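Incident review: delayed structure delivery

Summary: a single-chain prediction request sat in the queue longer than the usual turnaround. Root cause was a stuck worker, restarted by the on-call engineer. No data loss occurred. The affected request and its eventual output are reproduced below so the record is complete for anyone auditing the incident later.

Affected input:
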Amino acid sequence: MTALSCSPLRSLKPKIKLSPLNVRFATAKISPKPQDVDVKNLGRAIVDDFAQIRAKYRTPKHPIVLAHGLLGFDELHLVGAALPGIHYWRGIAEALRKNGIEVITTSVPASSSIEERAAKLSSEIETTSLPRIFRALKALRIETEAFTQLTRRFMQEDFNPKTPNREGVRYLSYGASVDPSIWSAFKRSHRIVEREEGANDGLVSVESSKWGEYKGTLVNVSHLDLINWTNRLRWLVWEMTGNKRNFNAIAFYLDIGDMLAKEGL
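Output delivered after worker restart:
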């Protein structure tokens, strides 16, 4: 079984390394021009490998688990269950299933402790100012343990020592980097993460994404791009003006399944 997550779950070594699950595959600019990146620090720079969906992909023999991160969900109904909900993994689970892949989409408490979310994840598989947001969630009686654990000290001194890599599990990871426009919702968070850890996708740094075998850095790809929430109209306008789209999330996840199948997983 392969678990894919767009949220850092392990980490924070001196240069923060918030890592992945079994396989970790860690807003966008209006005009995705090539980014000036330091390839040495980012590993292999992946610019447009996943820009188009290929005609054929292999199917891995094991299920793929799609696991959201902090404040995530599987399906969100804003106006009742009668109307279609908003899917976190937008179009990705459907594309994988059409390729014959067994997909498990999980949902864990959005902001509970790591222990609570891990227990819920296990059971499902087997069967702009943080302090202000923190106070608001407390007032609404929403679990906030996830925020108290999202620190370097907790990860370095508590979580990492108690959670070593498991023998027999292969760990692979991707990172992503973007240079958000001035009106992007991620502009402020990107600047904060960049100051502390360098290149990032608006929420998670490249250094935090690295765990196990690092496959490379997706260049000019945001955190929202990774879950296929990119504005389609923006891409349409961009392509109509003669420019080339550099990333397609569905092509990315199908390629991961193809890679796993090639390796007999």
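Verification: The first strand starts at residue 2 and ends at 5.
Action items: add queue-age alerting; document worker restart procedure.
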